TrEMBL record:
Residues 383-423 are annotated as: Disordered. Residues 18-119 form the TIR domain. InterPro entries: FxsC_C, FxsC_N, TIR_dom, Toll_tir_struct_dom_sf. Residues 400-415 have a biased composition (Low complexity). This is TIR-like protein FxsC. It comes from Micromonospora zamorensis.
Length: 423
């Protein structure tokens, strides 16, 4: 099969650097999942690269995913940005290596480097940063490259560049490493440019979602063939999960945006029509997207009452409307909200615009996960079966003691891994 056609914008001349990081779950009460210190670091690094660089016309300084327009196809936009970038700058943290989304960005860029050819040409195009230090029992070969940025600054290995960015007491060290990183980016981009080329999409480099996902996005919306009388069919499709409440302003169905949010937070996700998702909703955290027009059909109240009865605490509903829609859905939104309350779901959120939908989603995914951890079923631990002795190695002599392999012996004295932001 021939590779996909590269439909890059003719005026694109590349980008100095692509910043990659592990999205962190928002703290209680917050709505956006973007780490403010990542944003601050991106702005500081962009200023320093701009100060040192001599960019050609049309070349951008930097990119990170908060630049993607709200209604865009996130994965397609990332693939395009990865194909434009000269230098890939991953912010390594313990969470980075457990986030398929962040690792997918890195693997996509590495695949592009491999296609470019020699190691001499590609040297320096992947420049990692130690963002948050790792616990001593976690080892990753990639960390050596990240530590190389500040081997002469002892606090860098101990505290990471995020602490430098946050704390005024580290200002001198922060500016030193910021200048050093910008210098490496500029040198690589201007002396050994790759030029724009195709980067594989995240779906090409990330392992497919498992059959049993970590998270579910269920959709309760009419299909195009079963709309209430006089309802505008724009935005509806043959399946509820393909519903686009904001029409042409969004490139993907609303459920796909919600699933992408869960994936960026490290959860494998699946979208489904509500009617087909019943089994999953009993045992997996979920966001339920509700179109209030579902309540406009005759006998809808009785039908919905039966459908919604027994929903679990970890199914978090969001009633989705569009303030720009000429057909007012306020009546139906009020009615469906009351039906959700009657079904035992006290916290029902509402999004009335695309920005509000996007801003709410990280907090809703996090809340569903929190409720699942609090109320979800407990899976009993089953110890692995006794290993079968290998005939190749022979059985130990009778009465002898078998010494366990030190590499396979668990270290019971190791402390528990800490949990924290961006980890």
């Amino acid at each position: 099969m021939s590779p996909p056609t590269d439909r890059r914008r003719p005026a694109a001349r590349g980008t100095y650097f692509f910043l990659s990081y592990a999205h962190s779950a928002p703290p209680p009460g917050a709505r956006a999942d973007a780490d403010v210190w990542v944003g601050q670091f991106f702005a500081d690094l962009s200023d320093e690269v701009r100060r040192q660089a001599r960019p050609v016309a049309g070349m951008r300084i930097g990119f990170f995913d908060q630049h993607i327009p709200l209604g865009a196809d996130w994965k397609a936009a990332l693939a395009e940005a990865l194909g434009d970038a000269e230098v890939f700058v991953p912010l390594y943290s313990p969470g980075y290596f457990s986030r398929p989304w962040a690792l997918g960005e890195q693997e996509s860029f590495r695949a592009r480097l491999a296609a470019a050819g020699s190691a001499r040409l590609t040297a320096g195009h992947l420049t990692p940063v130690l963002w948050i230090p790792f616990p001593p029992w976690e080892a990753h070969p990639e960390l050596d490259g990240a530590l190389d940025l500040g081997r002469d600054v002892p606090a860098y290995a101990e505290d990471g560049l995020r602490a430098f960015c946050m704390l005024a007491s580290y200002r001198a060290q922060y500016e030193l490493l910021l200048s050093r990183l910008a210098s490496r980016i500029v040198h690589t981009a201007e002396r050994r440019p790759l030029g724009p080329s195709r980067a594989p999409g995240l779906d090409e480099v990330v392992r497919p979602a498992p059959t049993d996902p970590d998270f579910v996005v269920a959709v309760l919306a009419p299909t195009r063939d079963h709309l209430p009388t006089d309802r505008d069919p724009a935005g509806y499709a043959a399946s509820g999960r393909l519903w686009r409440p904001y029409g042409r302003r969004q490139e993907l169905p609303a459920a796909e945006y919600a699933a992408s949010t869960a994936e960026r937070l490290g959860l494998s996700a699946r979208t489904a029509d509500f009617a087909q998702a019943a089994g999953l909703l009993d045992r997996r955290p979920a966001v339920l997207l509700v179109d209030p027009w579902i309540a406009a059909s005759p006998d809808a109240a009785a039908i919905l009452t039966g459908m919604l009865h027994g929903l679990r605490e970890w199914v978090v509903p969001l009633v989705v409307t569009d303030d720009d829609d000429t057909q007012d859905a306020s009546r139906w939104a009020t009615e469906v909200t009351q039906l959700l309350h009657d079904a035992g779901l006290p916290q029902v959120k509402r999004a009335c615009s695309m920005p509000e939908f996007v801003d709410l989603m990280p907090a809703l995914v996090t809340e569903a996960r929190r409720q699942f951890l609090k109320y979800g079923p407990v899976v009993p631990f089953e110890p692995p079966p006794e290993p079968v002795p290998s005939l190749r190695d022979g059985l130990p002599p009778a009465g002898s003691t078998v010494t366990p392999d030190p590499a396979s012996t668990p270290d019971d004295s190791a402390p528990l891994r800490p949990h924290g932001e961006n980890r």
